[in-house]
């Protein structure tokens, strides 16, 4: 049996709507992007949405719209996909890391204040694996120190924190639509915000710095080509309509994993805070400390089970160490968790028989790869 790590869920309607765009002359800057933006803004309870060609582009435009630049610092988590922190570096600002909570794996609000300096401009929390970070204390700290919040919701569309949608807590937030995300546009992302200025600047900068009049060769500021095309936006619209069903299916798969994995000694299943509604992005376990994770991953791979060690600590990526002097031991919880995590196959239509195969193979792997030196 082969079970992939992830698989997009595309319907006939998804294919039809893209084909309809392809039979028109308008493949970019058209009605689909506008409609997609309206639908996402609605879903995230935000006034504005600005569609872009990736989650990374969205984060970059928010950082830039906030005027964050040379010499500034932004507080963020080292336990994330590297784009969250790279978006700070694109503008020559410094990512200052704060370690995570060992249970939720999100930035630990109790450690944030110690990391604030005179140069700090913003906090950039990430909702790791679809679980919202603890936004109430983060908002309180941000207010007290007059800092902006950039919400990396790229893994958390549809998640809630105290009943409010992820993406609506920061000065601006971003969702991402790469094919392994809960809904996909192929490549794509979208900024959500209630801040008119951020929306306006992002709209301009995604489109080569053009002004609101959209005169083709009038460029008011430095901009990029971060536009989302019409085919992608159409697919996003159609996928968004299915989001609730997708999230229910993913919650069921996660619950099935939880039940079956409880029988394997020492495996830590995801911990979900009571104040949140998950939007399951990936299903990540932690292996017992004495088990050689990389050997287990290799065994799973050899037996047709897709898996991945989510995440490698960002501060230990060679260019981060080189540029900022970060070293092993700087963020011990992130480092410890990172050495033990494994993302298992996870998608809407994962069958119980496939889950059984994954769990059985994992159990065999753990029992043959006990030692860290094996
Ligand atoms: C997916 C993701 C992004 C954005 O990724 P893109 O591939 O640029 O769309 C950003 N941050 C996190 C945490 C992500 O998981």
Q: Can you put this structure into words, describing what you see?
A:
With 374 residues, the chain is of the alpha/beta class. 37% of the residues lie in helices and 13% in strands. The protein has helices spanning 12-22, 31-43, 55-65, 83-89, 112-115, 135-144, 196-206, 230-240, 243-261, 293-302, 318-324, 332-338, 352-368; strands at 48-52, 73-76, 94-97, 120-124, 148-152, 160-161, 164-165, 172-176, 189-193, 276-277, 283-286, 341-344. Strands 1-9-8-5-4-2-3 form a seven-stranded mixed beta sheet, sandwiched between helices. Bound molecules: pyridoxal-5'-phosphate. The site of pyridoxal-5'-phosphate has 14 residues, from helix 3 and helix 4.
Which molecules other than protein and nucleic acid are bound?
A: pyridoxal-5'-phosphate
Report the mean per-residue pLDDT as an integer. Answer: 97
Distance between the terminal alpha carbons, to the nearest Å? 26 Å
- Major sheet details: 7 strands, mixed
Proportion of residues in β-strands: 5-15%
Oligomer description: single chain
Please identify the structural class as seen in this structure. alpha/beta
What fraction, in percent, of the residue positions are helical? 25-40%
Instruction: Characterize the overall form.
Output: globular
**Uncertain runs with pLDDT below 50, 5 residues or more?**
none
Separate helix tally = 13
- Roughly how many Å is the radius of gyration? 21 Å
Number of strands: 12
Question: Strands across the major sheet, in which order?
Answer: 1-9-8-5-4-2-3
Question: H/E order of the elements?
Answer: HHEHEHEHEHEEEEEHHHEEHHHEH
